[in-house]
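FIELD: query
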Amino acid sequence: MPNLTVTHEALLLANVRSATKCPTAVLIVVCPDPAEAEKCRQVIAMGHPGWDLLPIVIDPKHAPADDDADPYLTLFLACLPVLDMAQKPVARRLVDAIRRTGASGAEQKTLSAIILKRASEAARPILEELMAVEWKDDFIERYVDVGRAEAAVEAKITALLKVLASQDLHPTKKQLSRVAACSDIATLDRWFDRSLTAATADEVFKD
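FIELD: result
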């Protein structure tokens, strides 16, 4: 039997076609980076006469139109990102799209979390305000509280590291790893208080 060379792309399409019992299978590449998308857009020579594979590539410069788009398509375009979520009309469309999906309350919260995660710093407060009005529950408040808690932990860690350096305490790599991994404000406060008077780093991290 002759040796056969089969590309990953060919195997992928064949397996998908077989698994779904679908007569047609296409290769779609979603790439947020336009430069990388151009590389993905190159024709793949499959080696079989008459079969050269041209992937369908979606990137911010080559994306479906969002006019009257399905709500999930609208959310997809926002995450790509194609839509400017910092513009309030666009942000309002996204919140409306989440509602129009018909998803359950828990699923809408998941979609909201995804959109907020992908949003820029300028867009996030706009979206949070609109979502809080739209659903009138404590989801956004909890989401914001989590962000505030994370910021507070980062501030405590930064302050502790500055004191350790200024006191010339020279913590070990293991101790620095403990600091970086700690998310408990009370523990960070305890280490901070000790660092102000400790003679060694071991005294700071004795617990």
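FIELD: remark
Strands lie at 28-30, 44-48, 51-53, 56-58.
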